[in-house]
Design a protein that fits this description.
CATH architecture of the largest domain: 2-Layer Sandwich
Largest sheet: 5 strands, antiparallel
CATH topology of the largest domain: Alpha-Beta Plaits
Shape: elongated
Order of helices and strands: EHEEEEHEHEEEEEE
Number of domains: 2
Distance between the termini: 41 Å
Amino acid sequence: MIHTYSGYEERVKRNLEQRIKYMDAGDKVFQVVIPTEDEIEIKSGQRRTVTKRIFPGYVLVQMTMDDESWNVVRNTPGVTGFVGSGKPTPLAEEEVGKILKRMIEGTPKVKVGFSKGQSVRVVNGPFIDFVGVVGGINMEKGKVKVLLTLFGRETPVELDFLQVEKM
C-alpha cells in the first residue's frame, strides 16, 4: 500500500501505470488499485450513486519487492511513500481479499443526512409540511420512522428517505 496526497489517487494511478509501461516494469509491478465503493446520496430530493474512496490518500499496488520496482513506485509523482516504518510492510492476503471483495460485491450504502432524535420536515406525500422527530432509521428498506404530532398525539409514520429533509 502506498500513501499519496489525498485527492490525487487517480492521478497517481495513471502516473504509476505510465511509468510501469515506459520503464518496462510490468513483470515486477502487476496491479494498481484504488479501493472504492458506491454510496447512495440523497440531496435536494434526488438519489445519486457516487463512488467514494474507502481509504482516501492510499493506493494498493501488487508488486514483487526489489530495488528496481521500489524505485519505479517510490519516484512516481504524487507518491509520498510506502505504508510501513522504514521498510514497506506488505498487506496480508486476507486483508487484500476483504478489500477487493468489498469493492466488487458491496451493495451501495445509503448516506443519510439526518440521525435519530433530529427534527425533520416532510417534503412529499400525505404528510407534506409536517415537522417531526426521527425515531429510527432502517437502512435496508431505505425508510425512516418519524414521530409526527397528529390530532394532539405523537404518531410514528414510516417514510422514504426522499420524503423528509433535515431542518
